[in-house]
Write a structure and sequence with these properties.
3-stranded mixed beta sheet; alpha/beta; Malonyl-Coenzyme A Acyl Carrier Protein, domain 2; Alpha-Beta Plaits; 9 strands; 2 domains; single chain
Length: 293
């Protein structure tokens, strides 16, 4: 992850070097070489994804003159968006997301929480299922991804009851292989810990609007940022509203500057008229540079 960019572009290599220095561990080696089981640990995966995302963004910024009309990120990606917008220093961001990952992992013991995704379901229908399956436990929507795709999170028993109810009604549902039930009330201890950590972090006013998925709106005030990052830990990701709001700004292309192409796939089912490019590797970077030229 990110190795092709680090090999090809000094600006990308500097991102990984700064990340290693601030974390005082060879995170870049985990990204480039593995082992995968170590990279997939939440406390490693979150800063690794952030570093790879910022590296891709800075390559486009330096080599193609990228100047976005707005930036956003899905959950963890919002931290990358804040770095891209100049609202948060890269070093502070990777340290904070490592702490965020650790706090999230520790908030709920293994096996206590779970997540599942429903495809082809309306939000109101999913919320009714949550009400029916909750039975006094935590269960709520977690990711409102668009294209009638909604993820839910909560206590494992409640998630299992929802999966059974959805399956009985012939709805398409699948359990998600995640390390914790993200974006629900069970993450409250992680949110509290993150709030304490962010008391010592400096934020600046974003150079371009950052669309927060907590409220699905742009922010320009530095004072808003830490509170929104804390709220994000327990709040659903309102991604469809976020993308539709950004598309209304008159954007001509959406660039996914991170590993993979999940968000580009969601875009196709949400705003069909806005082309998207997964620009997290060399091939994607070249496509993006051609479109920006």
């Amino acid at each position: 992850m990110g190795r092709d960019l680090a090999d090809a572009f000094p600006v990308a290599r500097r991102v990984f070097e700064e990340t290693d220095d601030r974390l005082r561990l060879p995170l870049s080696r985990l990204c480039f070489e593995g082992p995968e089981d170590q990279l997939m640990l939440t406390e490693h995966a979150q800063p690794a994804i952030l570093a790879a995302s910022v590296a891709a963004y800075r390559v486009l910024e330096e080599t193609a003159g990228l100047r976005p009309v707005a930036v956003a990120g899905h959950s963890l990606g919002e931290w990358s968006a804040l770095v891209a917008a100049g609202a948060l220093a890269l070093g502070d961001a990777v340290v904070a997301v490592r702490e965020r990952g650790r706090l999230m992992q520790e908030a709920v013991p293994a096996g206590v929480g779970a997540m599942a995704a429903l495809m082809g379901a309306e939000l109101a229908e999913v919320e009714r299922l949550c009400d029916e399956a909750r039975a006094g436990e935590v269960l709520s929507t977690a990711n409102l991804n668009g294209g009638r795709q909604v993820a839910i999170a909560g206590h494992a028993g409640a998630v299992e009851r929802l999966v059974a109810l959805a399956s009985a009604r012939h709805m398409k549902v699948r359990r998600l292989q995640v390390s914790a039930p993200f974006h629900c009330a069970l993450m409250a201890p992680a949110a509290a810990g993150l709030a304490r950590h962010l008391e010592g972090v400096r934020f600046a006013a974003p150079r371009v609007p950052v669309w927060t998925s907590v409220d699905a709106r742009p922010i320009r005030d530095a004072a808003e940022v830490p509170g929104l990052l804390v709220r994000q830990v327990t709040s659903p990701v309102r991604w469809e509203e976020t993308v539709r709001g950004m598309a209304a700004l008159g954007a001509t292309v959406a660039l996914e500057t991170g590993p993979g192409g999940v968000l580009t796939g969601l875009l196709k089912r949400t705003v069909e008229t806005l082309p998207g490019i997964p620009a997290g590797d060399l091939e994607g970077i070249e496509k993006a540079r051609e479109m920006l030229s």
